[in-house]
Write the structure tokens for this entry.
Amino acid sequence: MANENLTNAKKAKNDEFYTQYIDIEKEVSAYLEYNENVFRGKTILLPCDDPEWSNFTKYFAQNFERFGLKKLISTSFAVQSKGYDTIYQPTLFETNNPQYDTNKTKTNGKIFTLDHDTTHDGKIDINDLEWQYLEGDGDFNSKEIKALRDEADIIITNPPFSRFRSFLSWIMESKKQFLIIGNINAITYKEVFPLIKENKIWLGPSITSGDREFEVPEDVVDMDKFTGEIRDGKYFQRVVGVRWFTNLDHGRRHQFISLMSEKDVIKYSTKKPFDKYDNYDAIEIPYVKYIPNDYDGVMGVPISFLDKYNPEQFEILGSDAFDGTPPIKKYTKKSKVKNGVKMKSQTGTMGCVIKEDSFGTGTYFDVGYPVRAVYKRIFIKHKKVKK
């Protein structure tokens, strides 16, 4: 039980990443460029959001009138329910308010709403936010937050990374539009990939490679392992492989990828293209730019293909990551001596494999011959082959 509590506390700490204002602005601008009325007349819910310092709340409150919003709702999760010890200090915004409660500030979540001009200055903006304590701790699975979800038209947030699967299921259950942040590897989750395959969700346009910087609270930082930066007393950590996941339409997903012919790919590629998988009738494409425009068979591409995926250009057939589109092979990596030390034998599973003439001294697999296992692949096919 002690180990389980420590694990949960570590996960909770790793969930404390606050999205930068500029990253929200870049992403949202792409939807407005595609459809300037995408938010007009809509109620937006920002759950898991700690409204007092949330950039999501700040951004949408400041742009309330420009976007033509009907209502903005933002909720936070109670500090005592986060699962780890923290140095908590309520903001002056809260303590200076007559409704401040020394107990509820730790045990209850808070809800901020914006839908009218409370300051009577002729405009609706961040100064008109009203707040109160939630009845519960603000967990998105509570009846209280589900009711807000059902009231909203669009859900936007950076959900807890450790609860991405359940949070996405929570959204899909409501059939709402959404825009959330997650790790690119979530593409391969059994709860996520079928939705991508069926074009029910897709990746957002503003992040296609590299990493993004998030602010992290000082009390969750382990300075012995911290690799980020400290600026103006705030802690910032770069996180690799983040993506926006959404079902809001945007222009990039309708742009056709410019591709070479099979002949030209062979001529100009720096890697050997078009290896055949040993256990699935498809060819290996190591980079998106090597997808031939005149091949009418099945192709295995990296999951980063989805950054450029156009559903009018390609059909997604499956993945080797969870559904076993190719037969999943069990392997045994036999023991060998490395730097004078005998390594333990290893067993596991692999999706797509390519037969190899050699695979390194002492390394063999029980498929009967040496093979190279390929990292997670999505299987695609042209909807219309270029002749």
User: Anything to note?
Assistant: Residues 95 and 101 are 8 Å apart (CA to CA). The chain has ten helices and 23 strands. The radius of gyration is 24 Å. The chain has a mean pLDDT of 85.
